């Protein structure tokens, strides 16, 4: 039996547990990453620095902003298209397949494409605007709009994923419910309000969850697009961590940032599970059973 | 069908097509820009960014294909993805088999340990991982990417496989044991073949995850020898900053393997990728 367990256990301990524990340990030291182990213990200093770090605080604000925009724009758009593609009309399979395409593309490669589209040197987006007689915009170089351009790209990349989840959720609602309600004289609006929406609740709640967790950990797309610039205007928590750790060699501070990222995901997951998902998961994140059997 | 319902249906369908058409424009425009842009030269790109190529240049695509870099990075990406997938699926299947079909003290505790791995985003560990890999002298080696990727893929893979293995009736195992099959033979010759659909699902997840991986290769593979396509595309853009058309051709070619895979295995790909969402 040990032969069945040990490969996975060794891999997991060496490359997951040890690094995560090491990050938690290093977060309490000032360390440039050289010389075996960190020795300069500084207690909570890194965490105190973090709470006064304008970039870190702005990272948190951007997580909130993207979350709000996703819930207000991206998820409703995905939901609307899912409801549309649930209807029976010729060609709907082709649309469903097409809308999922952005999700299968590599984030880093997508980012290169959008860098060219939003290029300041007469990029494609500027050419489209010129067609309407509008001057070019500093899509990725204007610190006031870059985050919204990135949100647009995130929507392009991820709405298809949420759409597929909504479609699956909608398809799992038995048609008999609708037929019975129609017999009782329910209108289309009532069907949506009293059958579709409540029965899609679990799917809606899980997509919000996935969207938030994805936002907290965002790196590839934004890093390749802007490296977090201009002037940190599009920086994410993971980019701040990367810059501090790999560029400035502030390993201790970068570890503290990564721990903050972990705690943010964990606290959000626990609170969301406790108060929002509730019955949906029945303890998926805490019980040993994983709620998945 | 009366004239009225026919008209209502026509109206309804028209509405669908307008919405679906808008969605299509939104999704397809960037990809068409890359595809067509790759067939233009740089002057055409500047002067008619929106139009069709005139004349069509295949030179950008041919240049990228004739350069060994693209093929080497493609090979590296495929190699790293396949080995990662093999390792994570094999290791996870073995331990999931034990979790699903053996009783022993500490089993649930051990499973919880693995499942808790779901809570750790890879980004949290990348810095210490880099230091560990540097200590083991695994930087610039494909194993430096493969092993951490496989390790971080374990939790979800184990969770999905365990719940599938549990559903296989105990009678199957009893019959196999009566026929003299030990745990190894049961695992390799009965359980795994019976689990083909779920093995396909978790393999797709691992393959796609590795294929798309960027942060880990970025920190581990600083030398070009083992660099993968996502790294290659970003670097190519840095090198050919002024030759947009060529970069677009490279981007399009780098997207092509995923698009082809999707065309042939869309069902497995969609169910695999969304199972991570619904199960996670």
CATH superfamily of chain A: MetI-like
Beta strand count of chain B: 0
Q: What is the number of beta strands of chain A? A: 2
> Could you report the average pLDDT of chain A, rounded to the nearest whole number?
88
Query: Which topology of chain A does CATH recognise?
Result: MetI-like fold
SSE pattern of chain B: HHHHHHHHHHHHH
Low-pLDDT windows of residues of chain B = none
| Euclidean distance between termini CA atoms of chain A | 23 Å
The SSE order of chain A reads HEEHHHHHHHHHHHH
Topology readout:
The complex is a heterodimer of chains A (293) and B (280).
Chain A: H1 2-26, E1 29-30, E2 40-41, H2 45-52, H3 54-86, H4 92-104, H5 107-117, H6 124-131, H7 146-171, H8 175-183, H9 188-199, H10 201-216, H11 220-226, H12 237-247, H13 251-277
Antiparallel strand pairs in A: 1-2
Helix pairs in contact in A: 1-13, 2-13, 3-7, 3-10, 4-7, 5-11, 7-10, 10-13, 12-13
Chain B: H1 3-37, H2 42-47, H3 59-66, H4 68-101, H5 107-116, H6 122-135, H7 142-167, H8 170-178, H9 183-194, H10 196-212, H11 215-220, H12 229-239, H13 244-279
Helix pairs in contact in B: 1-13, 3-13, 4-7, 4-10, 7-10, 10-13, 12-13
């Amino acid at each position: 039996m040990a032969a069945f367990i040990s490969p996975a256990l060794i891999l997991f301990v060496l490359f997951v547990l040890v690094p995560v524990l090491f990050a938690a340990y290093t977060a309490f030291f000032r360390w440039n990453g050289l010389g075996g182990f960190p020795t300069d213990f500084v207690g909570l200093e890194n965490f105190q620095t973090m709470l006064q770090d304008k970039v870190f605080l702005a990272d948190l604000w951007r997580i909130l902003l993207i979350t709000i925009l996703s819930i207000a724009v991206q998820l409703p758009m995905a939901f609307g298209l899912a409801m549309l593609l649930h209807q029976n009309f010729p060609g709907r399979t082709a649309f469903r397949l097409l809308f999922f395409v952005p999700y299968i593309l590599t984030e880093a490669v997508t980012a290169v494409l959008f860098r060219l589209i939003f290029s300041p040197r007469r990029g494609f987006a500027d050419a489209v605007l010129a067609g309407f007689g509008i001057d070019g915009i500093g899509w990725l170089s204007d610190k006031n709009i870059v985050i919204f351009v990135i949100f647009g790209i995130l929507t392009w990349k991820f709405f298809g994923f949420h759409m597929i989840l909504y479609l699956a959720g909608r398809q799992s609602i038995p048609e008999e419910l609708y037929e019975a309600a129609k017999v009782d004289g329910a209108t289309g609006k009532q069907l949506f309000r009293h059958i579709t929406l409540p029965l899609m609740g679990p799917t809606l709640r899980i997509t919000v969850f996935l969207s938030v967790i994805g936002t907290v950990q965002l790196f590839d797309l934004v890093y390749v697009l802007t490296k977090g610039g201009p002037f940190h205007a599009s920086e994410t928590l993971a980019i701040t961590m990367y810059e501090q750790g790999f560029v400035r060699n502030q390993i201790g501070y970068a570890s503290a940032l990564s721990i903050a990222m972990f705690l943010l995901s964990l606290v959000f997951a626990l609170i969301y599970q406790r108060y929002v998902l509730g019955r949906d998961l029945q303890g998926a994140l805490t019980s040993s059973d994983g709620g998945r059997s | 069908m009366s004239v009225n319902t026919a008209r209502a249906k026509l109206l309804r369908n028209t509405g669908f097509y307008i919405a679906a058409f808008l969605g299509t424009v939104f999704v397809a425009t960037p990809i068409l820009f890359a595809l067509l842009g790759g067939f233009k030269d740089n002057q055409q790109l500047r002067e008619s960014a929106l139009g069709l190529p005139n004349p069509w240049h295949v030179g950008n695509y041919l240049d990228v294909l004739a350069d060994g870099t693209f093929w080497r990075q493609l090979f590296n990406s495929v190699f790293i993805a396949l080995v990662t997938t093999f390792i994570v699926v094999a290791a996870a299947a073995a331990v999931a088999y034990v979790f699903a079909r053996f009783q022993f003290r500490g089993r649930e505790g051990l499973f919880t340990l693995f499942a808790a791995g779901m809570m750790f985003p890879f980004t949290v560990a990348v810095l210490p991982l880099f230091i560990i890999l540097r200590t083991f002298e695994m930087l610039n080696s494909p194993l430096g990417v493969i092993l951490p990727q496989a390790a971080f893929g374990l939790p979800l893979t184990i969770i999905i496989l365990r719940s599938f293995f549990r559903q296989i009736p105990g009678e199957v195992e009893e019959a196999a044991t009566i026929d003299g099959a030990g745990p190894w033979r049961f695992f390799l010759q009965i359980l795994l073949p019976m689990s083909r659909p779920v093995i396909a699902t978790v393999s797709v997840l691992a393959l796609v995850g590795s294929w798309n991986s960027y942060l880990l290769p970025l920190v581990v593979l600083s030398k070009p020898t083992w660099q993968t396509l996502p790294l290659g595309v970003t670097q190519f853009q840095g090198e050919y900053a002024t030759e947009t058309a060529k970069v677009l051709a490279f981007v399009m070619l780098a997207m092509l393997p995923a698009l082809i895979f999707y065309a042939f295995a869309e069902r497995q790909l969609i169910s695999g990728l969304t199972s991570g969402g619904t199960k996670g």
